[in-house]
């Protein structure tokens, strides 16, 4: 299975807002810790190591812009 | 007269001024902006007189609301004002979004053909009002009292007693119904001491309307973090008469007086469009916005519509457009209540439906604002991540929120809705939704639907046609008649879920779907019409 690149979330704006809301009142360090937990939870949910590695590579490449 | 903004509307003496007892009027509308005017014109089309009280002597001083969405254009077309808006306005449907110096994506709002109205027309609010004032005059039923204002308001059991200020002193009016369309700083709302609470956004935005000749495609351009406005956003829109709207986010700390000085604003204009750009200023304005709404849009015999009832951030063009849709929802209900054909509680459904619309608009505009002007460092990091990923990842483009542009609210939960026999099919035309346009008899379906209850039969089945034709007289002779319209246009069939089997729709006077069936029964249509009239 390849990394899904089209929007799969049925309510993109709502889920985006939920992510931002989850960070409300946190310091940057706490936010980073929250993100780490979130990445681990979602990575486990995805399960497929190939897909996760592809996502990691894309995220890393996008940082250079 | 070259500029409609220079037209001065004279105050006229009214016999009401010195009447022994307060003069009685069925409807008094406060405010001659787009919402008040649309309400008056719609009521006039249904035969009702109205008085409009307007403080000013001129049209809107600035361009203000400029983006008129498809549904608003359809409503104004029903009111006979669609063509001048199309002719004078700038039609657009494409937009581009930039991050820093790169274009991250482009969009097209309405790739579908077979609709009379485009996705959007940009036109300065003063032109919108100008055409409405002209249309209002033609009806002969609308008395606009310029340079008058409401000073007092008292509800009695049988009406609303208004104290009106005029250049010749105050006088009183007794109205059966008052429509408060007097804007974000509503006097009526203040006189009634109604709380109007919500969220205040601290960020400030600078509007520069400029005149320039520039040969570029008519598109909405939106920038996140551009070199000419680092860390902030900017927006460019074309208007009529070679006018362009430039909107700059200028931050919480910006000095209002300094920002609106032409020499400072000019620096921003040149930053966006280039040092050599040849332009002159038309209007400069700085604003902050709030997101809030009244708890109830109906207070006895006073009905709030437009910005007086709800205020949203400007991203998505949901202010003016939702206000006109308030008028569209209110006018037919007021008409039937005034004529004694529907109970007063039909007006409670005005609040029910339009408050739901306001909540939808508040939700979308608040999310857009949070994306455009992130409230925290982490929110900004996520925003910039979405923008960076959008350059290569299609999913991320869909998360970019520079304003979710106004679409009509589907009154999904409305108590006026009847049966839905099509269930999951043609969801865009389900009960509560605004009817969809399609070509019809060398014209357009929405023109044919007009502003009355209509039974719309879509499809080709001859047997159904016969049963529908048989019921024609019965439906036409109801107290509130139901006209019949039939279409077999292929685009209409597709949009109304009638490609394989016919479908029958009951359409309300505001062209929203009340109910729909696979099998036609005059009795079922009558029951659904009673429900849409709040009779049951």
What is the strand tally of chain B? Answer: 27
Gross geometry of chain A: globular
Overall pLDDT confidence of chain A? 95
Distance between the termini of chain B: 53 Å
Question: What percentage of amino acids of chain B are in beta strands?
Answer: 25-35%
Number of domains of chain B: 3
The tally of helices of chain B reads: 16
Specify Rg of chain A, calculated over alpha carbons: 13 Å
Provide the fold topology.
The complex is a heterodimer of chains A (65) and B (536).
Chain A: H1 12-22, H2 28-46, H3 49-62
Chain B: E1 23-30, H1 34-45, E2 50-54, E3 67-69, H2 70-78, H3 82-88, E4 90-92, E5 94-99, E6 102-108, E7 120-122, H4 125-139, E8 142-146, E9 149-156, E10 159-166, E11 169-180, H5 187-191, E12 198-200, E13 205-211, E14 219-224, E15 233-238, E16 243-249, H6 256-259, H7 262-273, E17 280-287, E18 290-293, E19 298-299, E20 302-304, E21 310-311, H8 319-338, H9 348-372, H10 377-390, H11 394-399, E22 439-440, E23 443-444, H12 445-449, E24 454-458, H13 462-470, H14 472-476, E25 483-487, H15 490-495, E26 503-507, E27 513-517, H16 522-532
Parallel strand pairs in B: 1-2, 1-11, 2-8, 5-14, 11-20, 24-25
Antiparallel strand pairs in B: 3-7, 4-7, 5-6, 9-10, 10-11, 12-18, 13-16, 13-17, 14-15, 15-16, 18-21, 19-20, 22-23, 24-26, 26-27
Helix pairs in contact in B: 1-4, 1-8, 2-3, 2-8, 8-9
Question: How would you describe the overall organization of this protein?
Answer:
The complex is a heterodimer of chains A (65) and B (536). With 65 residues, chain A is mainly alpha-helical. Chain A has a domain of 39 residues. Helices cover 68% and strands 0% of the residues of chain A. The mean pLDDT of chain A is 95. Chain B has 536 residues and is an alpha+beta fold. Chain B folds into 3 domains: 222 residues, FAD/NAD(P)-binding domain (3-Layer(bba) Sandwich); 87 residues, D-Amino Acid Oxidase, subunit A, domain 2 (D-Amino Acid Oxidase, Chain A, domain 2, 2-Layer Sandwich), CATH 3.30.9; 106 residues, 3-Layer(aba) Sandwich (Glutaredoxin). Helices cover 31% and strands 26% of the residues of chain B. In chain B, a hairpin with a 2-residue loop joins β10 and β11. In chain B, α1 runs parallel beside α8, α2 packs parallel to α8 and α8 runs antiparallel to α9. Chain B is globular. The termini of chain B are far apart. The interface between A and B is medium-sized, with 22 and 23 residues.
């Amino acid at each position: 299975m390849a990394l899904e690149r089209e929007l799969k979330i049925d309510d993109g704006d709502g889920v985006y807002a939920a992510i931002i809301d989850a960070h409300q009142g946190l310091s940057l360090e706490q936010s980073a810790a929250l993100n780490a937990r979130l990445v681990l939870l979602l990575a486990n949910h995805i399960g497929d190591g190939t897909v996760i590695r592809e996502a990691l590579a894309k995220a890393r490449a996008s940082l250079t812009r | 007269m070259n500029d409609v903004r220079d037209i001065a509307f004279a105050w006229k003496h009214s016999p009401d001024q010195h009447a022994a007892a307060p003069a009685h009027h069925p409807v008094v509308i406060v405010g001659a902006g787009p919402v008040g005017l649309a309400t008056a014109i719609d009521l006039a089309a249904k035969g009702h007189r109205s008085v409009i009280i307007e403080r000013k002597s001129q049209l809107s001083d600035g361009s203000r609301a400029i983006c008129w969405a498809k549904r608003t254009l359809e409503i104004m077309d029903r009111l006979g004002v669609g063509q001048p808006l199309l002719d004078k306005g700038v039609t657009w449907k494409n937009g581009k979004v930039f991050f820093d110096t790169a274009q991250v994506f482009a969009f097209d709002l309405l790739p579908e053909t077979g609709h009379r109205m485009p996705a959007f027309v940009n036109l300065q609010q003063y032109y919108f009002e100008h055409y409405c004032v002209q249309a209002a005059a033609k009806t002969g039923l609308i008395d606009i009292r310029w340079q008058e204002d409401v000073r007092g308001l008292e509800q009695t059991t049988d009406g609303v007693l208004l104290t009106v200020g005029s250049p010749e002193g105050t006088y009183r009016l007794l109205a059966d119904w008052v429509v408060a369309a007097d804007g974000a700083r509503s006097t009526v709302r203040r006189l009634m001491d109604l709380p109007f609470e919500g969220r205040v956004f601290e960020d400030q935005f600078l509007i520069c309307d400029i005149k320039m000749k520039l040969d570029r495609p008519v598109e909405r351009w939106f920038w996140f973090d551009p070199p000419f406005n680092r860390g902030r956003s900017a927006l460019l829109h074309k208007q009529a008469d070679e006018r362009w709207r430039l909107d700059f986010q200028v931050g919480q700390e910006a000095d209002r007086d300094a920002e609106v000085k032409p020499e400072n604003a000019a620096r921003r204009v040149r930053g966006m469009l280039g040092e050599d750009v040849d332009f002159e200023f038309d209007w400069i304005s700085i604003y902050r916005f709030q997101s809030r709404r009244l708890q109830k849009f109906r207070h006895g015999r006073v009905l709030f519509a437009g910005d007086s009832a709800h205020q949203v951030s400007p991203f998505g063009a949901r202010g003016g457009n939702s206000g006109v849709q308030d008028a569209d929802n209110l006018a037919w209900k007021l008409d039937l209540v005034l004529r004694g054909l529907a109970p007063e509680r039909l007006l409670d459904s005005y609040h029910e439906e339009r408050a739901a619309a306001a909540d939808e608009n508040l939700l979308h505009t608040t999310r857009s604002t949070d994306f455009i002007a992130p409230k925290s460092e982490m929110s900004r990091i996520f925003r910039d991540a979405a923008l960076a990923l959008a350059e290569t990842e299609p999913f991320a483009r869909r998360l970019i929120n520079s304003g979710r542009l106004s679409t009509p609210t589907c009154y999904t939960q409305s108590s006026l809705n009847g049966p839905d026999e099509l269930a999951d099919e043609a969801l865009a035309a389900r009960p509560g939704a605004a009817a969809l346009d399609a070509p019809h008899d060398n014209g357009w379906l929405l023109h044919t639907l007009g502003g009355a209850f209509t039974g719309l039969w879509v499809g080709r089945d001859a047997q159904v046609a016969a049963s529908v034709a048989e019921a024609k007289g019965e439906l036409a002779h109801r107290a509130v008649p139901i006209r019949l319209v039939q279409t077999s246009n292929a685009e209409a069939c597709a949009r109304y879920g009638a490609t394989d089997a016919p479908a029958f729709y009951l359409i309300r006077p505001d062209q929203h779907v009340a109910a729909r069936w696979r099998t036609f029964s005059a009795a079922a249509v009558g029951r659904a019409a009673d429900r849409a009239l709040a009779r049951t």
